[in-house]
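We both want to read C-alpha cells more fluently, so let's practise on a single case. Would you write everything just below, so we can both look at the same thing?
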Amino acid sequence: MDTFDHWFALSCSVAASVAGAGWFLRCFSQARHLLDTPTSKVRSAAQGYVEFYGVLHEHNDAQLLGPLTRTPCLWWRYKIEEYRSDGKKRSWRVVESGTSEALLQLDDSTGRCLIDPRGAQVSPLTRQVWKGNLRHPLGVPKTGWRALFSDAEGYRYTEERLHVGQPLYAIGDFRSSGGGRQGLDLAAAQGAVIREWKGDFNGLLQRFDSDGNGQLDEQEWQRVQLAARLEAEDRHRETSALPAQHHLAKPREAQPFILSCAGEDELVRHLYWQAAGGVVLCVVGALATAWLLGIQRF
C-alpha cells in the first residue's frame, strides 16, 4: 500500500469511527428523551417539553393535496428521483423534493393542540413508491409489487402523507395562550411594549414629549414606563379572556421533535437498533485504524 492510499484509508477509518460514535450518542440520547418524558394530556399539560398521544383532526376546511397523487391529506412529503447510468455506475439521484408546512391538529379527548411540523422528524403511516417515464407523474400511481418492479426506468416517485383519523405520537415544546392559563411577567411585557413603541420613535415623541424639545427627559420617560405597564396589563387581560390555544413546535434546545404514527415503544426500539449500528461502525472503524497504524509502524 503506497503512502497516499495508506493515509486515505486511515482517514476513512477514523471518520467512520467518529461518525459511528456520534450516531450512537444521538440515537441513544433521543431514545432516553422519549422514555424519560411522561405522556401528558393536552388539557392539563405543563408548559415545556411534553409528549402526547392522540388522533389527527382537520385544522381548517381547506385540506391539502398530495403534490404527486393529488390525494387529500393533512401533511405530505415527496421526492422525485432520476435514474442515472454511465455504463459502469447506476444510481437514483434526487431531482426534486418538498415537505408540507401546514399546521396539524392533534386531539387526545381532553383537548386539541396545533402542531407546527417544521423541523420535526415525521414518520407517517402512508407511503407510496412507484416509477414512471415522466419528470412529474400523471394520474394515480401503480400499487403493490408492480410499483416497485415497473419497467419504467426514468423516474422514481415517493409520496408520504398524514390523514384525518390516523394516530399520532408527538413530542416537542408545548405552549398555551388564552384561557387565563399564562401568568404575567410584568417587567418583560412592559419592556416588549416599550421596544415596540421605540420602533416608531416619532410617534413616541408626539405622545410623551410634552415640552416639544425632541427628547424625553426623566419625567417624560417615567410617563412612558407607566403607560407601557398599563398597556402590558391590558394586553394580558385581553389575551387571557380568549379561549385557550395550545401549540406544539420544535424545542429551542437540542431535544427531539418527533411526529410519528408509531407508538413510543416502536420508536425507542428503532432508535436502539440505530444506536447499535453506530456502535458497530465505531468499533469497525477503530479496529481498522489500529490495524493501519500497526502497518505504518512496521
Q: What stands out?
A: The mean pLDDT is 84. The longest strand covers residues 75-85.
